[in-house]
Write a structure and sequence with these properties.
11 helices; Peroxisomal Thiolase, Chain A, domain 1; globular; single chain; ACP_syn_III_C
């Protein structure tokens, strides 16, 4: 039987940092208010688009796996922030990487997107349709933010994470998953005035905005992630004692703490980095996984659980049996990106939103 082992991993986090204190200069908020409610201290703002962030994360992952982009059979980009709808963003990533033999597509399942994409790529490898796959979670959420609205402006950030999957006979990689969607409440978390739903004849179109009903989202996230995790553990025949590491979606530290409590896990068994990046949607799980590996939290043969919840309302959980590899084959040397452009773009965006709000 074929399995899909994770043999490479990489992330891209933009160099421009927007702290809670920065936000407090133009929104009625404070560092304490944000931290106590979300766990977030700062977030990254990208000056490059989703495809470029994806490609940089992918280059790190390819170097980590020790393979060339030309060897890839499949590229999946999980994102809610595509650079273009036609053509897809994944084709631009392929172009940037030079992996001209790979099939490419985007996958839109919001914050659960990486788990959806990981299951899809794993299934294609196990079916024999691909041998080497690149799975990316990447978001440029700052592009959608209305900086005049505190409830959403403090939550989101930009970034990308990627993994390489390779066919193997060893029983490792994604072994069990449970994915689903609670579409009856899909409107409580949505980006308005975007896509063919908006009136193209309004001149100019209404500003982009994120509809967000926090309390309802919190309750549904805890329930959806918790039930999915329990389902996957039952499928895999795992007990709480068998879980070595939980890598949850990083939306709110209270959601993570609630899930940790349900699973009765110690702090050192849960990967948390929301304080540094905020909610990067589909990118949170792969970025957190990369940092868990960098920090030595993942060991050969570990049982890793992951869970996520996002717009749609999509939800899911996954069980990953880690293989033997926990150190990168080599490092990708990345030229430093200039952050000042990001600050300039952010300043213009903030001024525009605040002017519209007055």
């Amino acid at each position: 039987m074929q399995y899909a082992e994770i043999t490479g991993w990489g992330k891209y986090t933009p160099p421009a940092i927007l702290t809670n204190d920065d936000l407090a200069t133009f929104i009625e908020t404070s560092d304490e208010w944000i931290r106590t409610r979300t766990g977030i201290k700062e977030r990254r703002i990208s000056h490059i688009n989703t495809a470029e962030m994806s490609a940089l994360a992918a280059k790190h992952a390819l170097a980590s796996a020790g393979i060339d982009a030309s060897e890839l059979d499949l590229i999946i980009v999980a994102t809610s922030c595509p650079d273009t709808l036609v053509p897809n963003t994944a084709s631009r990533v392929q172009q940037l990487l030079g992996s001209n033999n790979a099939a490419c597509f985007d996958l839109s399942s919001a914050c659960t997107g990486f788990l959806y994409a990981l299951q899809n790529a794993t299934a294609q490898i196990r079916f024999g349709a691909a041998k080497k796959a690149l799975v990316i979670g990447a978001e440029r959420m700052s592009w959608f933010i209305n900086w005049a609205k505190r409830d959403t402006a403090v939550l989101f950030g930009d970034g990308a994470g990627a993994v390489i999957l390779e066919a193997t006979d060893k029983p490792c990689g994604l072994l069990n998953a449970k994915l689903g969607c609670d579409s009856n409440a899909r409107d409580i978390l949505s980006i308005t005035n975007f896509g063919t739903d908006m009136d193209r004849y309004v001149n100019p179109p209404s500003a982009l905005d994120i509809a967000f009903q926090g309390q309802d989202i919190f309750k549904r996230a805890v329930r959806g992630m918790g039930q999915a995790t329990e389902n996957v553990m039952q499928q895999a025949g795992l007990s709480v004692e068998d879980v070595d590491l939980l890598v949850p979606h990083q939306a709110n530290v209270r959601i993570i703490e609630t899930l940790q409590s349900k699973l009765k896990l110690r702090d050192d068994q849960v990967m948390v980095n929301i304080q540094n990046y905020g909610n990067t949607s589909a990118a949170t799980v792969p970025i957190a996984l990369c940092e868990a590996l960098e920090q030595g939290k993942v060991k050969p043969g570990d049982n890793i659980m992951s869970a996520a919840f996002g717009a749609g309302l999509t939800w899911g959980a996954a069980y990953i049996k880690w293989g033997d590899k926990v150190t990168a084959s080599q490092e990708y040397v990345q030229q430093e990106q200039e952050p000042q452009n990001a600050k300039q773009l952010l300043s213009v965006s903030i001024e525009h939103c605040l002017a519209k709000a007055e």
